[in-house]
Design a protein that fits this description.
Elements: H1 2-20, H2 29-36, H3 40-47, H4 49-52, H5 57-66, H6 81-90, H7 105-115
Helix pairs in contact: 2-3, 3-7, 6-7
């Protein structure tokens, strides 16, 4: 009986951990602080960085499709705001849809402003 209860508790703990994995987001304390201040860059790092920084799945897929020069979103200057919004909300190819619950409209607008800022003066 005791073994069955222990096994059940371990299984429940594993299921809880696996179910919560989708909620995990890698972020440093500095990134979290900046994101709470509304920084588009910090929001991009927190919400998009897992896939769209160097070595991320999104970056690798874009490199295959468009070449290395267009693989890092933060370094591009050819992304119209409407296109970014459409891709985020509806997904494209291997990029999933990102809901308003996951990234509220106000945060998405900060990310869009960051990605579309003027890079060359």
């Amino acid at each position: 009986m005791k073994i069955a209860m222990t096994a059940t508790a371990i299984a429940l703990a594993c299921l809880t951990a696996v179910a919560g994995m989708g909620q995990l987001r890698p972020a440093s304390a500095a990134t979290q602080g900046a994101a709470s201040a509304g920084s588009g860059e910090a929001l991009f790092l927190r919400e998009c960085g897992m896939c769209h920084l160097k070595g991320g799945t999104g970056t690798m897929m874009l490199a295959r499709r468009l070449g290395e020069g267009k693989s890092l979103l933060a370094e591009r200057n050819d992304l119209p705001p409407q296109y970014i919004e459409m891709v985020v909300r509806h997904g494209i190819n291997s990029m999933p849809t990102i809901t308003r619950v996951e990234v509220p409209d106000a945060e998405l607008q900060e990310i869009v402003r960051y990605l579309t800022r003027e890079r060359a003066q």
